[in-house]
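Build the 3D complex.
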Amino acid sequence: MLPGAQPRAIAARVLDAVLHRGRSLKAELATALPTLPDPRDRALVEAMCFAVLRQPLRYEAALEAWMPRALSRRDGELRALLFAGLAQLDPLQLPAHAALAATVEATRVLGRKHQAGLVNALLRRAQRDGLPATDPRHSHWPSWLRGLLRKQWPEHFDAILANSAIAPPMWLRVNAARVGREDYRAQLAEAGIQSMAPAAPAEALRLDAAVPVSTLPGFAEGVVSIQDLSAQLVADALSPAPGARVLDACAAPGGKSAHLLERDASLRLTALDIDAQRLQRVRSGLVRQGFEDRVELLAADAAELDAWWDGRPFDAVLLDAPCSATGIVRRQPDVVLHRRESDIAALTVLQARLLDALWHTVAPGGVLVYATCSILQEENEAQVRAFLARTPDARSEALDARYGHDREVGRQRLPGEDGGDGFFYARLRRSPPDGSAHPG
Ligand SMILES: C[S@@+](CC[C@H](N)C(=O)[O-])C[C@H]1O[C@@H](n2cnc3c(N)ncnc32)[C@H](O)[C@@H]1O
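Done.
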């Protein structure tokens, strides 16, 4: 068997499950990838799956144009293999000869040897003619979601869809406790990895091209982490004072907790998440960085205060809320395949419940930062406006920031702006005990 056939067959199985059987990409990859011993094969499977799911209609259009009859429902795996084959040519631009041969061979691995000729013919056509042009107005995003976005972001709608279909740049967060950003940038350059440093946040570096994490100097020792620009800006939005008691209420997998500690070792941090398994990822991240003794980790529903809170207030609370993830479709492309309109209503109820409960844990005069990776206004500014309307001792504070879009409350970055994910941030101040205005 050709060595590249196995990863192609595995990509086809994963894509078949995600595209045709409503399965989650993350869950399918978690099962499939460990079966491949070579990390390059695992990376290839991921690259093919992400490329296909970011713009499945491009590949569908090619099959429609080139096949005399639509594939039957029984041929879901074949369709997925063809998509993976096409994605290798565009956008992945793998050497065509080897990619085609291995994809054709993958039909055997899938028990579809009789379809090898068809795969060969279609991929050769793609290699010769390129993919047919598609109408940019066609999108695999569900119509209810497109309708919402068109209404809420009329001038940005096309850019949101276009940017969500492109692979994100690789962003690093340099561990400020260990090394300065410019020093680390020089180490990268020595290793042949070029990067640029944005004005904010102070620890972010954007790589000119993605590299395997194992090639990053000091990655295993916690000198650097992978985190999108927009996620890193949450630490700026919260900016707790030295020694503050801080709650990260939806902490897993732990990127923002780690960032806060890297910036300031004097923080007294509690990291909470409802999902005990995901909380293990927080723990292992903290171990990698040597922070495990400095954080209280709790598995609980943040809204059930009786279950986890001892009544001692926090100076700063971060609510990085569960959300539609509509701002990170380029990272989780199956989000738009699986999201239902009813999910949004359920999420806004959950977010409001978390906001209301966690507000009790904020010390008078303290702050709560509400953040999401959503670009839907009902999860973001409308959510916060409704909270302010029913919470007399809360007021919104302007963020010291220039990125994204300044909203009536909070700030919104849309996907791809400055290379970052779509993200929303609002900073809420609780009135001090005597009701006097906060000085700063
Ligand atoms: C957007 S993610 C948080 C990402 C995290 N802050 C980071 O930077 O790595 C949302 C998290 O909220 C958690 N979650 C959902 N409902 C929750 C609840 N009721 N109480 C606490 N955590 C919850 C989920 O398990 C998930 O880990």
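The CA atoms of residues 34 and 42 lie 8 Å apart.
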